[in-house]
Amino acid sequence: MRRNPLGKTYSYLLSDAGTLIDTGIPTKEGLDTLEEQLSTLDLGISDIEKIIVTHMHTDHIGLINRIQQKTEVTVVALKEAVNVQRQWNKSRDTAFEDTRDEIAAWGGSDFLEQFSQYEHVFRRPRWRLKIDETIADREHLRIGSHSLEAHWTPGHAREHLCLHDAEKGILFSGDHVLPKITSHISHHTYLVGDPLGDYLKSLDRVRDLPVKTVLPGHERIFHDLAGRISALEAHHERRCGEIIAKVREGAETVFEVSSVISWDSRPWNEMAFWTKRMAAAETYAHLIYLRNREKVEENLRDGVLVYETA
Ligand SMILES: [Zn+2]
Fold it and tell me: Is 252 exposed, middle or buried (0-12, 13-18, 19+ CB in 10 A)?
């Protein structure tokens, strides 16, 4: 087993089975790095037979196209990935309107003029991942010398997959559990649900697996899975506490709450429009979570969602 650092995204090779877990970003540099790493094992792109994707974010699936231009590969993902693609495709025709309405419902009507400049981006044809084989949750896979169990871990992405090798005590954690970064948990316009609730359940799901080594999608290999999960839970609990406090102090809408809570990256008023929208989607995921657990009350007032403490 080898590790191929492609910039900041890791791709893992099960070398005796020509199987790659994730691919990295869609750049020439990414492909060159992959080829370079394969060559240290006397392998080339044509030795890759299968790619398993942990989730369908560009930094993990981006290189698939370029690999496919060079060799025939089977793309494997969790069953839910097919459903997510279906929802994504169905949403295409109304994506601009849906996103615009959502920004308004979040109390962001001041941003609508700026948003409308991006209409053409929403109208563009969309690339879609062609999935050749699907894996069921808890399915056992025999891949070369590896015996892997699939764990559906929705949260960071609805279709997120972790792979556990119980014999070797290894967890391929994708972006579900990273050693330092808190994975972005966000609401997606085209998917109805409770992503933070899903995420916390998914953390529980992997907490007690026999794991000695975690191989994540970014940063670095680490070992204390349960410790890291506790830290992530504490982070979200603090975040929820902060949001409740701001709602109690009078922040009413998704954008208002977002503008008064603290952000690790940069202060709210220094964020560009799309960063603000991403931050608001993260806040909304927390508000959905709190609403579903009756910590805050959500009401619709003149087309705007307003919150108060329950
Ligand atoms: Zn990632």
Answer: middle
